[in-house]
Predict the structure.
Amino acid sequence: MRTPPTASDASRRLALSLSAALLAAPRTAAWSAAPERESSEPELVRLYDSAASQYDSLDSGPLASALGLQALRAQATDLCRGRVLEVGVGTGLNLPLYDPGRCESLTAAMRFADASFDSVIDTFSLCVYGRPERALSEMRRVCKPGGRVVLLEHQRSGGALGAYQDATSSAAARLGGKGCVYNQDVAAMARAAGLRVVRQQPALLGVVALYETVPV
């Protein structure tokens, strides 16, 4: 497994070769907000635009490293091979972590034919998609048979903590969570989208998990 490092020169060259398209992934119908979500797509765009300048320091800074989130990102990208699609690339936090010796190409758009990619990866974005099930279905659609869809996501934990998430999810998403619905059943949504979970690695008392899934 690659450690969460300062990016190697080779990784930096891979990241730079992606150009601006990686940092401006086009929104398609798959990402449009569903009526049941309280935050509309324009509102989420506004929230993330306002948070962009602090996002890296929060999600890859000392606290994120202490919580093991950087190590989880490294594990997730380490599962990727061949032609890779990153969904919800955001500010590009994962780009230095890909192994250019194993990844032939990397992109962030979703307008592709069926079975276009060997690996599809999403990290901490599923919770803000208006229709997460539809997003997962798109990931499955563009993934080749025998490929993998890698998900590193917020999810519902069990027991009292899960009950707390259920009670606070709506307010948290609205007031400070930038639209993130953090009590989703990621495994169930993946199965409903036609993905089989081959490995699930929970972290942080189960509120985060790394999933390795394959199309069925």
